[in-house]
Design a protein that fits this description.
The chain is an alpha/beta fold. The chain folds into 4 domains: 95-321, Carbamate kinase (3-Layer(aba) Sandwich), CATH 3.40.1160.10; 406-561, VC0802-like, CATH 3.30.2130.10; 564-712 and 912-920, NAD(P)-binding Rossmann-like Domain (Rossmann fold), CATH 3.40.50; 717-899, Dihydrodipicolinate Reductase, domain 2, CATH 3.30.360.10. 40% of the residues lie in helices and 19% in strands. It is built from 35 helices and 30 strands. The strands form 6 sheets. Strands 3-6-2-1-9-11-12-10 form an 8-stranded mixed β-sheet, with helices on both faces. Strands 22-21-20-19-23-24-25 form a 7-stranded mixed β-sheet, sandwiched between helices. A 6-stranded antiparallel β-sheet has the order 14-15-13-16-18-17. It binds adenosine-5'-diphosphate, aspartic acid and magnesium ion (MG). Aspartic acid binds next to helix 13. Residues 101-102, 131-132, 137, 217, 282-283, 297-301 line the site of aspartic acid. It catalyses: L-aspartate + ATP = 4-phospho-L-aspartate + ADP; L-homoserine + NADP(+) = L-aspartate 4-semialdehyde + NADPH + H(+). Bifunctional aspartate kinase and homoserine dehydrogenase that catalyzes the first and the third steps toward the synthesis of lysine, methionine and threonine from aspartate.
Length: 924
């Protein structure tokens, strides 16, 4: 132990320097009355074990020069009386305060950069608060953790700390500046080594020792910056803020500044160091007992704000590595935007709820004196930054938009909800106080509280690491009530996150919270708890941790802080799929610019190969990419990729196949919150029970399933039918020519040529499927009939629809399409006879599908229509659909137009995609 205490060799605070006589001599020269500490104890271990304060080391931070002037400058030296000839600290507008964050002083070049910014500021007086070089505070905490854990590698870790600062100083300084810094650095490091050794032996570090150790980063960076600035000829001094800033530690891991005492000490410090530019250490402070402490992690912003308030400065500029305060954490929301201004309250709420660009306590000190804070990017001086000040009166805006009430969003992770529930709570005074009393006793920090007005339950969020103790304390505190059944449970819901929306007056503006919850619902995110303070500045929701980023992105994009962005996966790049991709490619820019809709194809998959992208595919060359960079097709992986890319809040899968296996996944996809759009008829015309399940799910959730192109390609058939049904019309009958192929054939089968010749012509013109039997069999029409019938509420299976096949019985088994075409003329006579019969009656033949809603049945058959019937007027391959309803009884509502072909089908799918975008909040 003796050797340990002996190893603390502190050159700059040699016992001699602290001898009362020496101090008194210097003091008398300066005309001050001072009190000097007795020589500090040099035995470290008792310090550690008794948690006494390391005063000796505080003084050790002062260089020899400073010490000669301030030999009395032990931080305990409070009782100094300032004599009349001392420089008096001027306060007010002449002061400009800057704060440089860790990344700003991350290396020698950056430190020079900071120096230039300070030098260029032509304010009369400047106070600059610096953080430790980036990562250094983490390195210092790591030293403590290692030493406590008796891990020898703390020695190497300390060498790294030394090396980092030594090499930075070698780059920056020269001559006596360099040598004095290095000797101080060496001295500090050898002290730290001894302290860490003691911690290593004790296997424990007291809080004050930890704070003392971790604060060194700021001491070193401040000294280096001040030397660089002094080199340019500026009148510049560095300040060990522990001599000035006095804070009272609180139980809740916070520090409350003592402004009165700090101001006194600042006056005193300035009287001895009357410089125009002061470089002050951020983060560190002292307790009223002069024990080194810190303002806790990220506390340098707070230091700057306190300094600004003490000086009543004109403004506080916080220099960091982003262009200002973003509408959401830019690491989580790529499309976050910079906020030009924020009110003090908004900034406070944003930082409290996790926007770590600003320490939450930064606001209060400056707000008191109305001092604006500017957040600026040291790496992008052209960016104006964010100004935090009193709010511009919202009334100035003529018609404030909903969005202007919401400034930004922030999140806090690693929380758990605690729910105390029971009928015995209602009307019992003191329950809340008993609950929170128990929580306070275990020292847990309650982040959010929500209580239903029925008083049936109280629910609150605490950090996950504290929840076990909280639950135990509550169970013990309420054991009697739980036993008697007055309380039913103390439940813990782990893995939660908080999402907060922040904005002046948002909570009192109708529509804001509705929009917020709507966006969450549409992204299929379940809200576990809600709180809205009457401060009107924030609405807080608790969500599952795994949903948090998606929730953040969904609400963010909903408030137009970024575009309505939809991640799309295209399944089946055949004729229709690739036509859709072409249309998307041609229209994407217009949608983005004019309609705020950002559609991103994150993947294309065929049955064998797929192409994936993290940000959205370039649709001008997807074919080449698919063949060159594509990978083996795997539908599960594909879906996971498209969905997993959760910087985009909404996902849609577009199934352009005619495949029933793909269709069988829709239910699962919808359940996961993935929207589905398709021209594939398989799901809606497949087994009834599966169809009903799918539709029930669609109705329950906010996930959308659109299939307009399953009937009549791009013609508005499903949407027309929906419109009629939803507005309360009663459908009596739907009758139509649903097949472009059969429409063409019957429009041209007018007696001049035999039926088989018309079919051959249609085949040649590409109107039919490769095997025309697929069209002539009527199955495709039957599928459309069943889709419409089910839409009208009829519970029919495909097998319930009688279908008149135009494929003669004997030709159904032909091996090939060629053989079929060859034999078809044998049946021309039958068809000619039917046509003749119709013509004799002044009618035409048409192949139609009918949904007879009144009689709850459907049919597909050849029918005769008089020549003035709309169905008789058809030409080409048009579809025509007539809706006979209660409202449209005399004259049916008719939709007519091209109902087949890649362009119109892809167009139908595209309009479903845009419908989805508008459901998700795109402007109309
Ligand atoms: P410094 O070391 O300069 O104090 P911090 O890392 O403490 O810097 O804070 C800046 C960081 O805060 C940014 O790099 C950014 O990643 C993060 N951040 C989180 N939320 C926001 C937000 N809403 N706006 C801006 N930055 C944010
Ligand atoms: N250096 C301290 C930290 O990293 C304080 C700060 O930079 O704000 O927590
Ligand atoms: Mg910070």
């Amino acid at each position: 132990m003796a050797s340990l205490s002996g190893s603390i060799q502190c050159r700059s605070c040699s016992p001699k320097a602290l001898l009362p006589e020496a101090g008194a001599a210097v003091a008398s020269k300066l005309g001050r009355k001072i009190s000097v500490f007795p020589t500090p104890s040099r035995s470290l271990l008792p310090l550690l074990l008794r948690s006494s304060h390391p005063r000796v080391a505080v003084v050790s931070q002062l260089g020899r020069n400073e010490l000669s002037k301030t030999a009395h400058a032990s931080v305990a030296d409070v009782s100094v009386e300032v004599s009349l000839d001392d420089a008096e600290l001027p306060k007010g507008e002449t002061w400009s305060v800057h704060k440089f964050g860790g990344t700003c002083v991350g290396n020698s070049q950056r430190i020079k950069n900071c120096a230039n910014i300070v030098i260029k500021d032509d304010s009369e007086r400047k106070l600059v608060v610096v953080s430790a070089m980036s990562k250094v505070t983490d390195m210092m905490y790591d030293l403590i953790h290692k030493a406590q854990a008796r891990d020898d590698s703390y020695v190497f870790a300390l060498d790294n700390v030394l090396e980092k600062h030594r090499s930075t100083a070698l780059d920056l300084l020269e001559g006596s500046d360099l040598s004095s810094f290095l000797s101080r650095l060496d001295n500090d490091i050898s002290n730290l080594k001894a302290m860490l050794r003691a911690i290593y032996i004790a296997g424990h570090a007291t809080e004050s020792f930890t704070d003392f150790v971790v604060g060194h980063g700021e001491l070193w960076s401040a000294q280096m910056l001040s030397s660089v600035i002094r080199k340019s000829g500026e009148d510049c001094k560095w300040m060990d803020t522990r001599e000035v800033l006095i804070v009272n530690p609180t139980n809740s891991n916070q520090a409350d500044p003592d402004f009165t005492e700090s101001e006194k000490r600042l006056d005193k410090w300035y009287s001895r160091n009357p410089a125009r530019t002061i470089i002050a250490t951020g983060f560190i402070a002292s307790t009223p007992q002069n024990i080194p402490t810190t303002l806790k992690r990220d506390g340098s912003d707070f230091s700057a704000a306190i300094m600004g308030a003490l000086l009543k400065a004109r403004q506080v500029t916080i220099w960091t590595d982003v262009d200002g305060v973003y509408s959401a954490d830019p690491r989580k929301v790529g499309e976050a935007v910079i906020l030009e201004t924020l009110s003090y309250q908004e900034a406070w709420e944003m930082s409290y709820f996790g926007a770590n660009v600003l320490h939450p306590r930064t606001i209060i000190p400056v707000m008191r004196y109305n001092i604006p804070i500017l957040i600026r990017n040291i790496f992008n001086l052209s960016a104006p930054g964010t100004k935090i000040c009193h709010p511009r009166a919202l009334e100035d805006e003529e018609t404030p938009k909903l969005e202007s009430y919401v400034k930004g969003f922030a999140t806090i992770d690693n929380l758990a909800l605690v729910n105390v529930e029971g009928t015995g709570m209602a009307g019992v005074p003191g329950t809340a106080s008993a609950i929170f009393g128990a929580v306070k006793d275990v020292g847990a920090n309650v982040i959010m509280i929500s209580q239903a007005s029925s008083e049936h339950s109280v629910c609150f969020a605490v950090p996950e690491k504290e929840v076990k103790a909280v639950a135990e304390a509550l169970t013990a505190r309420f054991s009697q009530a739980l036993g008697a059944g007055r309380l039913s449970q103390v439940a813990v819901i782990p893995n939660c996150s908080i999402l907060a929306a922040v904005g002046q007056k948002m909570a009192s503006t109708p529509g804001v919270s509705a929009t917020l919850f709507n966006a969450l619902a549409k992204a299929n995110i379940n809200v576990r708890a809600i709180a809205q303070g009457c401060s009107e500045y924030n609405i807080t929701v608790v969500v599952k941790r795994e949903d948090c980023i998606r929730a953040l992105r969904a609400v963010h994009s909903r408030f137009y802080l970024s575009r309505t962005t939809i991640a799309m996966g295209i399944i089946g790049p055949g004729l229709i799929g690739s036509t859709l991709l072409e249309q998307l490619r041609d229209q994407a820019a217009v949608l983005k610019e004019e309609f705020n809709i950002d559609l991103r194809v994150m993947g294309i998959t065929g049955s064998r190969r797929m192409l994936l992208s993290d940000v959205g595919l370039d649709l001008s060359n997807w074919r080449e990419l698919l063949s060159e960079k594509g990978e083996a097709g795997d539908l599960d992986k594909f879906v996971q990729h498209v969905r997993g890319n959760d910087f985009i809040p909404n996902t849609v899968l577009v199934d352009c196949t005619a495949d029933s296996t793909v269709a069988s996944h829709y239910y699962d996809w919808l359940r996961k919150g993935i929207h589905v759009i398709t021209p594939n008829k398989r799901a809606n015309s497949g087994p009834l029970d599966q169809y009903l399940k799918l539709r029930a799910l669609q109705r329950q959730s906010y996930t959308h399933y659109f299939y307009e192109a399953t009937v009549g390609a791009g013609l508005p058939i499903i949407s027309t039918l929906r419109g009629l049904l939803e507005t309360g019309d009663k459908i009596l009958k739907i009758e139509g020519i649903f097949s472009g192929t059969l429409s063409y054939i019957f429009n041209n089968f007018v007696g001049k040529r035999p039926f088989s010749e018309v079919v051959a012509e249609a085949k040649e013109a590409g109107y039919t499927e490769p095997d025309p039997r697929d069209d002539l069999s009527g199955t495709d029409v039957a599928r459309k009939v069943i889709i419409l019938a089910r839409e009208c509420g009829l519970k029919l299976e495909l097998a319930n629809i009688p279908v008149e096949s135009l494929v003669p019985e004997r030709l159904r088994t032909c091996a090939s399409a060629e053989e079929f075409m060859q034999k078809l003329p044998q049946f021309d006579k039958e068809m000619t006879a039917k046509l003749q019969e119709a013509e004799d009656a002044g009618q035409v033949l048409r192949y139609v599908g009918v949904v007879d809603v009144a009689n709850r049945r459907g049919v597909v058959e050849m029918q005769k229509y008089s020549k003035d019937h709309p169905f008789a007027q058809l030409s080409g391959s048009d579809n025509i659909i007539a809706f006979t309803t209660k409202r449209y009884k005399e004259q049916p509502l008719i939709v007519r137009g091209p109902g087949a072909g890649a362009q119109v089908t892809a167009g139908g799918i595209f309009s479903d995609i845009l419908r989805l975008a508008s459901y998700l909040g795109a402007p109309s």
